[in-house]
Amino acid sequence: MSLVIPDEEQQKVVRAALNEDVNTRQRDLEAIKEWLRKEPHLPDTWDDVALMNFLRGCNFSLERTKRKIDMYFTMRAAIPEFFTNRDVTRPELQEIIKLMRASVMPGLTADCKRVTVAGASAVDFDTPDIANFMKIALMLGDLRLRMEKVGVAGDVYVLDASVAILKHFVKVSPAIVKKFFVCVQEAYPVKVKEVHVINATPLVDFIIKWVSPFLKEKIRKRIHVHPDLESLFRFVPRELLPEEFGGTAGKVNEHMEKWIEASKREKAWFEKEEGVKADESKRPGKPTCHEELFGLEGSFKQLAID
Length: 306
Prior knowledge:
Elements: H1 8-18, H2 25-38, H3 48-57, H4 62-78, H5 80-83, H6 91-99, E1 103-108, E2 114-118, H7 130-147, E3 155-160, H8 166-169, H9 174-187, E4 192-198, H10 204-211, H11 217-220, E5 223-225, H12 229-233, H13 252-265, H14 267-273, H15 290-294
Parallel strand pairs: 2-3, 3-4, 4-5
Antiparallel strand pairs: 1-2
């Protein structure tokens, strides 16, 4: 799997965006590793590259990084439907993969952001369990935690909404959507800078309003619904997009297949990671409960995101 890594000049841009100081970042990493060793409910050790990416995602604030990492391991225990059976050869995940037209793209924008595209290869199909799509998305997120060696300045998402039809929407559980947004926004060091929606169906405006309570205001303001691809290209260069999204960067399935193959190669790692999670029985003070994480039915906790 090959991602374009920022060169020396680009790394200066990334470091400025992430508040990263080359003279103090190793000290910060050691402080986080020492904190992990002292927390009885969290793993004693973890991947250094992933920990550094948590620091980057939190602009090198040690306290924010600690909260984010704690939530990451807490979510791994709290949402088994996302964090167990993470084997892309399983039939239920193969069902999703056959329908997906999605990939993290290898290139970088001029300001060093990474572009991810997502859509479906068809529109009219039997609606699968959306939790399995979310599981795959988080698997790719975990791979990126280990692969982004020097970080990026943020993430740009391009979503093909042609699949957003009533037939599928009515089968989406609000509870699982809530869990996904809490997980992504509270537990992963992602910096969502732009969200672009193309091929919007008449239902898209309603769906955006439906998910808006799950999003911080700054994220809601970063959603752009485009009337055509030329409008998209004013934000995202076509050379960074696959052909199916109007770009010139090859076929989306070719890029996606590289991520799926990487997931297959890491099968043993994904299996091992199922046991790397918070142990609420050892948490100092009161254990975290489901209602605290996801709210009571009909309510939703306000999220924090960079």
